[in-house]
Amino acid sequence: QVQLVESGGGLVQAGDSLRLSCAASRRTAATYAMGWFRQAPGKEREFVAAIRWTGPGTYYGDSVKGRFTISRDNARNTVYLQMNNLKPDDTAIYYCATSSTFFSESYGSYYTGQGLYDYWGQGTQVTVSS
Questions:
Q1: Distance CA 92, CA 36 (A)
Q2: Fewer Cβ in 10 A, N or C end of the chain?
Q3: Are 36 and 81 in contact (CB under 8 A)?
Q4: Whether 93 contacts 48, CB under 8 Å
Q5: Are 51 and 57 in contact (CB under 8 A)?
Q6: Which residue from 100, 52, 53 is spatially nearest to 76, judged by alpha carbons?
Q7: Which residues neighbour 126 within 8 Å (Cβ) at sequence distance 6 or greater?
Q8: Given 3-state DSSP classes, what are the helix, strand and coil percentages for the chain, each rounded to the nearest 5?
Q9: Are 36 and 44 in contact (CB under 8 A)?
């Protein structure tokens, strides 16, 4: 069992920045990627970003490309989501998750699929006011 704890959410104004963190209680040998998803009120959960746990490979949803950056600290079993130029449409609960499915860097875009993720955190609220 892997526990994930997100932090860093809050209330900000449009144009501000936030950095979310997701700390995993441990990394199993079968953890190949970590991802961020979000769910706004009345909407389905959507893919935000993912990163392969070893080697290169970062992937982003179209709505956050150029504004959000995902990174990792393997030694701390932690993944970060740097969110810049936030917009009211970014308001949502943000969840991190781990995937035990392996894709090479070339096929890493498949990490957009929620069904590939095994463990999920409880989420952290991000609210962006206009």
A1: 12
A2: N
A3: yes
A4: no
A5: yes
A6: 53
A7: 9, 10, 12, 18, 20, 38, 83, 86, 90, 91, 92, 93, 94
A8: 15, 50, 40
A9: no
The pLDDT tens digits for 58-94 are 999 999 999 999 999 999 999 999 999 999 999 999 9
Q: Which residues contact 66 (CB under 8 A, 6 or more apart)?
A: none
Cα–Cα distance measured from residue 84 to residue 105, given in angstroms and rounded to the nearest whole number = 25
CA angle in degrees (0–180, nearest 5) for 81-31-61: 35
The Cα–Cα gap between 76 and 127 comes to 27
For range 28-43, the mean pLDDT: 91
Q: Which residue has the tokens 């970014």?
A: 90
| Structure-block tokens of residue 112 | 């957009």
What are the helix and strand counts (H, E) for the chain? 0, 11
108 touches 52 (CB < 8 A): yes
Match 């490979």 to its residue by tokens: 57
Task: Provide the token pair at 75.
Answer: 């030694």
